[in-house]
Amino acid sequence: MAAKVEIYTWATCPFCIRAKNLLSHKGVEFTEYAIDGDQEAREKMAHRGDGRRSVPQIFINDVHVGGCDDIYGLESQGKLDELLA
Questions:
Q1: Res. 1: pLDDT tops 70
Q2: At residue 9, does pLDDT exceed 90?
Q3: Which of 3, 4, 2, 10 is nearest to 68 (CA)?
Q4: Using 50, 70 and 90 to split pLDDT, how confident is the model at 40?
Q5: Residue 22 is part of a domain; what is its CATH number?
Q6: Which family does the record assign (predicted)?
Q7: Contact assessment for residue 5 and residue 80, using Cβ atoms and an 8 Å cutoff
Q8: How remote is the C-alpha of 48 from its chain's centroid?
Q9: Does the predicted TM-score (pTM) go above 0.85?
Q10: Which domain holds residue 74?
Q11: What does DSSP say about strands 63-66 and 57-60: parallel, antiparallel, or unpaired?
Q12: Angstrom distances, CA of residue 38 to CA of 4, 12, 66
């Protein structure tokens, strides 16, 4: 069974685009929540993401893994595929 991946984004955020590109390159299907200008959605994201208000914020199987740098860090450590399995 594939992991449930969710990502909170802004349309013009280069870090969001980069994180989505990594996931797409790996063939991962994900649910994207575009929260541009939506303060209520941003509050929900921050609540789920340990108070983090920057985008992107990424969740794998309902576990907060962080933002763009975090997901690329997991990839470089060889740990991302384990989480996505």
A1: no
A2: yes
A3: 10
A4: very high
A5: 3.40.30.10
A6: Belongs to the glutaredoxin family.
A7: no
A8: 12
A9: yes
A10: 5-84
A11: antiparallel
A12: 23, 14, 20
